[in-house]
Amino acid sequence: MSTPTQITEPSEQEQQLYYYGLPSKPRLLARSNASESPWTPRTDDNNHPVGKSIDVVGSRHAMVARWHPEGLCDKAIALLEPVDWTSIDVIRIGYDGDEGPKPVIVWVGVAPGSTTWEVAHDAAVAVRGLLVREGMGDVHCEMRESIVSR
Q1: pLDDT classification of 31: cutoffs 50, 70, 90
Q2: I need a labelling partner for 102 at 20 to 30 A (CA). Which of 12, 39, 53, 56 fits?
């Protein structure tokens, strides 16, 4: 019999480097796949960090037809009520140089210092549960600290 994996707050290194390569240098707060996909720094042959980049989801993914037209966004917003979110984006984020499309992510911006890791993690897992129930098991939720400027 296996024991459940203990979920812990991302290390300082993961918080700082998880989104390495993105121009806004966001700080990771929580992610719904932390237990199934523990983070390890990815480096190139010269031991330099491999950067990530953002892509559009594209019209072929089911999320495009479901996010706004079918109200999935509103359901996610209700689950995010415990956090002071500043933005919600559906995008692809992945490592530069990887083959194939980057993973689709519900990317939630949270005001810096406004919530605890535990609250953010619980909200990310709740959004992930919604996505799975709605047939989008390939989509995860990640939260980052961010400030929206106008």
Answers
A1: very high
A2: 12
